[in-house]
């Protein structure tokens, strides 16, 4: 039920109650007025009867009182009039004419109590009232009742009773009530017309305003207020419509402008732009806080851990792997994983990276032949960081709901990874620059700068841990002849061949450094002297078998190796490097293509500077 109907019903009920109460009050008042009027007439008539009877008694004509009483009843339009003597008067003067004794219980009660009593009897067609009024004796006033009656002061001498027809008074009262009813009904109708005339426009605009607010609550700000019928409501409607138009334009523009900052355009938009704006701002706020955090991270690994934290805590993923594919350096590595990597991405070409699109096993079974885990689904999504760097996210799920959820959040995850892209590129560039500063570009070996840092940081730790190093200094024999005879390009190729042989011959824990020109330094981790010589011989013999191409010519070269042991030969790594260099010199002097291990005797007639 609408408010307008409620107001009308309330007004009808109020006016109806008022009308009924007014009719009842008026009817009761007129009835009371009619009864009071009749009682007053009865009192007046009784007083006249008292005075007349007293006059008759004083003048000695009591025998003619019947005529007087009949005339009084006729003049006052009284239906019946009689008097009743008290026992005292009856005892003194007898019962009188027409048996002037109490006729009924009312006469008897009035004689006893000395109080006036009245009784109204009403039928459908007639209304009558019976009134009995006592005649009380008193010696005060004129005449003195005690002069004629043997009675006491205040004793009741008799009762004057009469019956009066008040039908005309009732009829007049009803006529007046009907007039009042008609006037009241006309007044109510007039009030309703006035209310409808002056209040209806405001009620209409209220309902229109309600409809507009309901539409705005549901997200539709295009509805406008209509139906205004006077100047005041028109002014209010125009103001509200103008405000709604501004709100609609503002919300639409905000929704468009804020929405462009979100990379994921696939999420379901709500009809209400306020909800969309709030959702977008919440997402932007989360992404901005994520961006601020990763910008202060120290290295690339921290950023990858931060992305993994978002995947675990925000997206509630419990099994995923992030793999970095660096095409420039031809390196693949797992940067973060939960429960391990379930596919052979590190050893084989990644399908998702190759097609630059998601691979979803729930859409097509066995989409990727590299995936190994049974009874699970997977979604592999490549996120391009740069032309040479891709981050592949593999999400492993069990069950249809989790798989569907993982499919829906891939674009949301892209927002975070896209936000992290500049930081990843920056950290990756720093890694590249650091590598370029510490790695020789021709051989992809560490350089002298790295050696300086390694000696300053790692060697003291190695000393405390009791770690030893085998030191090898390697040099190509007659290298200058290669540059002179075939050119520097062939010389560079010879250096690359040596570097490949060295890398192939040593372990991952060992370290190969291009010391300068055609010289190489190798540090063998925890290696005994006999193994140092064995590795050096392997490098020497393997290189001697390598063909070096110079245009259409092919030739072979040899190399010499000098070795020492740290900290056996010295507790200074620089001295051990110098000792290896001295051993290399001995190998050169001894005919080249040799491996020489440092001996203390080599120090004879040789000064080793303190800088070593």
Features:
612 residues, alpha+beta
Protein model, in words:
Helix content is 53%, strand content 17%. It has 612 residues and is an alpha+beta fold. The strands form four sheets. A five-stranded antiparallel β-sheet has the order 6-5-9-8-7. It has a five-stranded mixed β-sheet with strand order 11-12-10-15-16, with helices on both faces. It has a four-stranded antiparallel β-sheet with strand order 1-4-3-2, sandwiched between helices. Helix 8 runs antiparallel to helix 10 and helix 12 packs antiparallel against helix 13.
Indicate the topology.
Elements (H helix, E strand, L loop, with lengths): L2 H57 L5 H11 L2 E8 L1 H7 L11 H9 L3 E6 L4 E10 L19 E10 L1 H51 L13 H29 L13 H23 L4 H15 L5 E7 L4 E7 L13 H5 L3 E2 L16 E10 L2 E9 L2 H39 L9 H18 L3 E8 L2 H8 L1 H18 L5 E6 L2 E7 L3 H16 L3 E3 L2 E3 L3 E8 L6 H17 L5 E3 L15
Parallel strand pairs: 15-16
Antiparallel strand pairs: 1-4, 2-3, 3-4, 5-6, 5-9, 7-8, 8-9, 10-12, 10-15, 11-12, 13-14
